Amino acid sequence: MHAPRPASPLLLLSRAALVSALVVALATFVSPLLAQESAPATPAGAPGKLRVVSLSPVLTDFAKEIGGDKVDVVGLVKPGVDPHTYDPTPADAQQVSSTQVVLISGKGLEGYLTKFRQAAGGKATWVDVGAALPSLEAPEHDHDHDDDHDHHHHHHGADPHWWHSVANAKLAVGVIREAFAAAAPADKEYFAGRAAEYLEKLDAMDKEIKVALADLPRDARKLVTSHDAFQYFAKERGFTIIAISGISTRDQPSSKKIVKIINQIRADKVKAVFYESVENPKVIAEITKETGAKVGGSLVADGLGEGAASTYIGMMKANATTIVQGLK
Ligand SMILES: [Zn+2]
User: Are 227 and 247 in contact (CB under 8 A)?
Assistant: First the structure.
């Protein structure tokens, strides 16, 4: 089996990690019985399938779309769970120790990563998807640079919420396709075909969102949300963000900051403010009471939601619909 090594500059894998992934893939191919015997009894152990663990619901969805029935995907961080405060369990480490590929959302979202990797051990290839995508800087919130820096939080550097840009999502699909092809070269064409189909669906979704947002005049494109998760969306769609908290759901606003936001909403005549499905909407209630802005509904900020929003495409469409209905 002399599969050429796929050299992808997008994959920031160490040479050693890539080699070990190929070795694992080869061992599984040559001796499936042995692999079955030595593998611990985990739900992710179906023979002949690439075993993948994902640390983000969005990546779990991408992995299923690209991997189809050639891949077993286990999502550790479930939809509705706050990824900023997630704490991996020993069972999570167990899953990782017997998997072949681990998908990381990256850009600092998984604060637990270093410790978790050490705890999990194993021979998996860790694919930092976010590291291959362009970053927006985490903002300091106050463009007028006054003395209102209420939290000097730990999120200097990149904003981790890259998936709210469809352009980034498409790049991420490419990263995962290459990672799967490297780990299971025999199924390379299969992954490529499924990824191409999914990219077409993402393009169709992007067009739909553009059409929906066309109803909103430029000066209505102001998004007031609980935490600062929609910068990538804002940049791609021409919105301004007025975030109540910081980049992490851990950052809580001061009363001074809330007063400032209330004044800005009044001055800009913002019609609606939005809360997030993993957030406590108490501060939002206070702001709507003070400004007369309505509650525009719930946005899915940090992963996937329920029902129609339980897929990436569904989540993106649901957010766009909620925003248009609230602001028009
Ligand atoms: Zn977030």
Answer: yes
pLDDT tens column, 207-228: 999 999 998 999 999 999 888 8
Q: How far is the CA of 45 from the centre of ligand 1 (A)?
A: 32
CA distances from 187 to 3, 194, 201 (A): 11, 11, 21
Burial (0-12, 13-18, 19+ Cβ within 10 Å), 57: buried
Percent of the chain with pLDDT over 90: 65
DSSP string, 111-178: TTHHHHHHHH-SSPEEEETGGGS--PBPP-S-TT--S------S--SB-S-GGGSHHHHHHHHHHHHH
pLDDT band per the 50, 70, 90 thresholds, residue 57: very high
Ligand 1 centre distance from Cα of residue 49 (Å): 32
Domains of the chain: 15-201 (3.40.50.1980), 216-327 (3.40.50.1980)
Mean pLDDT of 237-248: 89
CB burial of 2-31 (b: ≥16 within 10 Å; e: otherwise) equals: eeeeeebebbebeeebbebbbebbeebeee
- Residue 90 Cα to ligand 1 middle (Å): 24
CA of 195 to the centre of ligand 1 (A): 26
- Interval between CA 308 and ligand 1 midpoint (Å): 20
| Cα of 213 from ligand 1 centre, angstroms | 23
Beginning with the edge strand found earlier in the chain, give each strand of the sheet holding 50-54 in spatial order: 71-75, 50-54, 101-104, 125-128
Q: What is the per-residue pLDDT across 132-187, written as a single tens digit (0 to 9) for each?
A: 999 998 876 443 333 344 444 444 589 999 999 999 999 999 999 999 999 999 99
Q: How do 222-225 and 101-104 pair as beta strands? A: unpaired
Question: Which pLDDT value is given to residue 146?
Answer: 38
